Structure formats: C-alpha cells, structure tokens
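Attaching the record inline, Q. Sequence:
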Amino acid sequence: MSTNLLLTQAAGSGGGAFAFAQIIPMILIFVVFWFFLIRPQQVRMKEHRAKIAAVKPRDQVVTGGGIVGKVTRVDDEYADVEIAQGVKIKVVKATLSDVVSPGAKPAND
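Structure, as predicted:
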C-alpha cells in the first residue's frame, strides 16, 4: 500500500515542471516579438518624433498626404509650408511624414 502512495505522490509532483515547460515557449515567442517587431518600431517612432520636432524654416518636408514643400515658419504646433511660389499652406507638425535633406536628388531627374 505504501508503494502505491509513493508512486501517486511522485506522479503529482511532476505537474509543476510540466506547467513551467508549457510557459517557456510563450516567453520565447514574446522575446522574439519584442526584439524583431516592437523594439525596432519604438526606435523608428522616437527618431521620427525627433526629426519632426527639429523642423526649421527652409527645410523641405513631405506631409502625410504626399505634398512636398519648403517650410517658411514654424511654431509649437503648426508649420507654414510653401508648396509653390506664393502658395503657402498651414499644416499640423504631427502630420509631417518626412524631412527631406536639401542635397537629395529628386526621384524623377
């Protein structure tokens, strides 16, 4: 009778290790997602925010709608962008998608 009791206790104690072995793949999946998806996206967002915050007059920018123009005036929330000679629009700085370097070669040339 005591042998059956010992076998029953030994079989029951392995359940904790089995549950831990089931959690390990979930942890590994989270680590992979963190390093390959979440962390790089956070780095790109941080760089984008810094680039948009550093916009100054005479920078060439691209808006979220694809309009390309030159910044003429900047304040905390808005920027005035000249899209053609004498044509200025006021845009929210948060909608700027890119700041183009002035020496960049145009795509169609």
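The helical segments are 2-13, 15-53. The beta strands are 60-63, 68-74, 78-84, 87-92, 96-100.

More tomorrow.
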